[in-house]
Write a structure and sequence with these properties.
This protein is of the alpha/beta class. Helix 13 crosses helix 15 and helix 16 crosses helix 18.
Length: 455
């Protein structure tokens, strides 16, 4: 724990002195605070890894449950900080409640010093592991596992996530393409009580009718021609953990019926078997289809909607996030500058203005790819207006609306999208991965559009 920074909050001065003496040679920094009202101010001024927080104080907050009150304050503003609760033997039930509200662990006083040190070391190891995971995963995550965003609409989103993540409620994540629904699902899992268990993602919208059952429910050897061995399905792989079904709004009514049966019975039957396998999962789902469209029973089963939508989370489009646009742009600039070994210093004024006035139909994904292209193509140490190019699809739509020729002026939105997709595929000589990346789409989404337009 030599690199750990720990804040100890307790109104017992003798305890604070003892803990400070114990921890000082073991950690990088130990701060003690007798007044819980100073917690948030201290966290604002210091990079704290762990808060060691007493459950009961003599005054200040008259809730009868001060520890849980301050735990909620810490986790709502600094969700990445680990909190270990200090409790007396008679209040262990409150400490258990604190685990459900986001605490990492609790210790009962009086404690053995070795037990306290072991608890803090274990919690700090979790902190380091999550930071390490962030460095190798999506650049749209902070190193502290938190989502980037300071706008009011993102603060509201974070608050709702903190409320629902520790529950077992099934959550439906709604939002346009590119808003970060996958990242929201990952964050919900990390903040849940199943965080140490498996997180399994399935793009169900890309599964064909024949693959749907085998992928989700598994199969037995000999169930079909290429089934050479038993294979576990995604439901079983996510047992005791979280299963994330992406693009759920695109599955057929037949697939919906099979999914509903598995969720209702909490068991799956692998292909080629008659023996049901019990599963215990927490379900997260996501779609870019508006909830009103899902309410159409000719498209989506109402009973399945009720099953997957205990709570819904609406992810805002980037154009509604105000100051977050520049914040995210700077984050991506730093990430890709390091990736491509370029010493970029920031954005020039005209580039910032261009970012602020663009409406980002491709949302965060479009911003990310635009900044990556800008870093690659920039010839100076700062990003200029001319370095930033946006979605080719949107550009085609905007440019065609300005043309007077009948061949463009009378085109529908679908015709313009088809033209943009064809142009991108031709530009990359049929390389679907590169074309999808330029268009701000996933490979699966691009394939679906190609099938739709017979490309």
């Amino acid at each position: 724990m030599k690199k750990a920074s720990i804040l100890v909050v307790d109104d017992d001065q003798d305890l604070l002195t003892a803990v400070r003496i114990l921890l000082r040679p073991k950690v990088q920094q130990v701060i003690v605070e007798p007044n819980p009202e100073n917690i948030l101010r201290t966290l604002e001024r210091n990079a704290i890894d762990i808060v060691l927080l007493d459950m009961n104080f003599k005054s200040v907050i008259n809730t009868g449950n001060e520890g849980l009150f301050w735990l909620g304050k810490i986790k709502s503003q600094y969700p990445h900080i680990k909190v270990v609760m200090i409790t007396a033997y008679g209040a262990v039930d409150l400490a258990v409640r604190s685990l459900k509200q986001g605490a990492s662990d609790f210790i009962v006083k009086p404690w053995q010093n070795e037990h306290l040190l072991q608890t803090l070391e274990t919690v700090f190891e979790e902190t380091k592991q999550t930071k390490g995971q962030d460095k190798t995963s999506s650049p749209a995550l902070r190193q502290d596992n938190d989502l980037i965003g300071r706008s009011a609409i993102m603060e509201d989103l974070q608050y709702k996530m903190d409320k629902v993540a520790p529950t077992e409620a099934n959550i439906l994540i709604l939002g346009e393409n590119g808003t970060g629904k996958d990242l929201i699902a990952q964050a919900l899992h990390r903040r849940s009580l199943r965080a140490k268990q498996a997180y399994i993602k399935v793009d169900v919208g890309a599964l064909t009718e024949t693959l749907f059952e085998s992928e989700l429910f598994g199969y037995k050897k000999g169930a079909f021609t290429d089934a050479r061995e038993d294979r576990q399905g995604r439901f079983e792989a996510a047992n005791r953990g979280t299963l994330f079904l992406d693009e759920i709004g695109n599955i057929s009514l037949q697939q919906q019926a099979k999914l509903l049966s598995a969720l209702q019975n909490r068991q799956v039957v692998p292909l080629g078997s008659y023996q049901p396998v019990p599963v215990d999962i927490r379900l997260l789902s996501a779609t870019n289809v508006p909830l009103k469209a899902l309410a159409d029973e000719s498209r989506f089963r109402k009973d399945l909607i009720y099953r997957i939508n205990t709570v819904e989370i609406q992810v805002p489009p980037l154009r509604e996030r105000g100051e977050d646009i520049v914040l995210l742009a700077n984050h991506f600039l730093d990430f890709y500058s390091r990736k491509y070994h370029k010493n970029m210093e920031g954005f020039e004024g005209d580039a910032v203005q261009k970012l602020k006035t663009y409406h980002f139909p491709g949302n965060v994904r479009e911003l990310q790819y635009s900044i990556e292209r800008a870093v690659i193509m920039a010839e100076q140490q700062s990003i200029r207006d001319s370095d930033i190019l946006f979605s080719p699809i949107e550009q085609a739509i905007q440019e065609s609306s300005k043309l007077s020729e009948p061949t463009y002026a009378n085109q529908s939105l679908e015709e313009m999208e088809r033209h943009a997709i064809q142009s991108a595929i031709e530009r990359y000589n049929g390389n679907i991965s590169k074309a999808a990346r330029e268009l701000g789409l996933t490979r699966a989404a691009l394939y679906r559009r190609m099938e739709k337009y017979n490309i």
